[in-house]
């Protein structure tokens, strides 16, 4: 068994966040959580330590669910203590947590630094003040920039989270949010399409006809552009699409919206389809019969497309009899080379 890094996930209660954002039902999104104490966090850490292969060289403890720094300081210290103890012993390399931009200040950051936190993720979602207001976020664009500036004064790695298709969102608001994120220069980014989850304000708006979620096709097209733009600006997108839980995977919690368990694969497949078609333009006027596509081995499935969608599309559009995909390690991952017959 081989893996670059291993994560010990610790789900904290939603108590850290008193807000009810339009899209959020934390129990449905993250799964059921319990009131964690130092004792049961130690139990979780030990359980995962036994599960993972030895030796572990890159182990991370990640606090998920809720807004960690919205918890009382003494509770934050209680939860971080066993994680920090493992880090001091050399068993754990990273401690990660997520929070809101308006729950960041110098006192909190000093405590997080003292207890070994190395990665902080901020739920930005949008930088448009009207969109933030409509979705009951409880913070402003100014809060986002202030929080990022504060975090960057310490030795933390900074991640940001962005949502696409929020209530009041448009192509322009998404574009401006992307531009702001590029200005903020996080170490990494997560992008989530907005899904209507049961028992949320968005569900009420959706059922009243006041909110219409983006379609899957629209969202794929938007995220395709975002992925390319962030890549061009050296901002890694480490997640694209909502992570499946038992509820999410079986559709129990989803009312509407562009959810797909293979969302990122679909987006990246579309990027490769565009790349192939751009390369095919040089053969305009030629009668094509067979097409051989050379690509990096790790890109072969994306070149073929989700469930062979790109192959089928190209065969039908260009009246091809056959497409062959040949992986070559020497070809750069974001390029393809074509051979036509």
Automatic annotation (TrEMBL):
An MF annotation (GO) of this entry: catalytic activity
Parts forming coiled coils: none
Domain Radical SAM core: 1-229
Record-level GO BP terms: tRNA wobble base 5-methoxycarbonylmethyl-2-thiouridinylation
Requisite cofactors: [4Fe-4S] cluster
One Pfam family hit: Radical_SAM
GO (cellular component) term, any one: cytoplasm
PROSITE patterns: RADICAL_SAM
SUPFAM superfamilies, sorted: Radical SAM enzymes
The entry's keywords: 4Fe-4S, Iron, Iron-sulfur, Metal-binding, S-adenosyl-L-methionine
PANTHER family attached to this UniProt entry: ELONGATOR COMPLEX PROTEIN 3, HISTONE ACETYLTRANSFERASE-RELATED
Protein name: Radical SAM enzyme, TIGR01210 family
Biological source species: Anaerovirgula multivorans
């Amino acid at each position: 068994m081989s893996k670059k890094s291993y994560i010990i996930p610790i789900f904290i209660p939603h108590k850290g966040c008193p807000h009810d954002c339009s899209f959020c039902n934390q129990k449905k999104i993250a799964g059921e959580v319990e009131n964690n104490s130092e004792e049961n966090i130690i139990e979780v850490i030990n359980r995962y330590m036994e599960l993972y292969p030895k030796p572990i060289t890159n182990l991370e403890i990640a606090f998920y669910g809720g807004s960690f720094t919205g918890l009382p300081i003494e509770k934050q210290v209680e939860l971080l203590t066993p994680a920090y103890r493992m880090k001091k012993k050399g068993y754990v390399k990273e401690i990660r947590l997520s929070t809101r931009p308006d729950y960041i200040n110098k006192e909190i950051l000093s405590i997080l630094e003292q207890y070994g936190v190395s990665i902080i993720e901020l739920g930005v979602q949008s930088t448009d003040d009207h969109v933030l207001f409509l979705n009951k976020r409880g913070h402003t664009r100014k809060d986002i920039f202030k929080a990022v500036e504060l975090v960057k004064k310490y030795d933390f790695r900074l991640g940001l989270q962005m949502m696409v298709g929020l209530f009041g969102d448009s192509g322009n608001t998404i574009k401006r949010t992307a531009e702001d994120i590029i200005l903020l220069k996080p170490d990494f980014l997560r992008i989530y399409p907005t899904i209507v989850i049961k028992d949320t304000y968005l569900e009420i708006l959706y059922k009243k006809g006041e909110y219409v979620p983006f379609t899957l096709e629209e969202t794929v097209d938007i995220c395709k552009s975002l992925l390319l733009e962030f890549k061009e600006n050296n901002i890694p997108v480490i997640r694209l699409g909502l992570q499946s839980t038992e509820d999410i995977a079986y559709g129990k919690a989803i009312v509407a919206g562009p959810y797909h368990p293979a969302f990122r694969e679909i987006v990246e497949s579309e990027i490769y389809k565009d790349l192939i078609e751009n390369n095919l333009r040089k053969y305009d006027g030629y009668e094509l019969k067979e097409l051989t596509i050379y690509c990096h081995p790790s890109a072969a499935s994306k070149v073929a497309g989700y469930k062979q969608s790109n192959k089928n599309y190209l065969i039908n559009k260009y009246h091809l009899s056959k497409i062959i995909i040949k992986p070559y390690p020497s070809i750069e991952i974001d390029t393809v080379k074509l051979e036509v017959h």
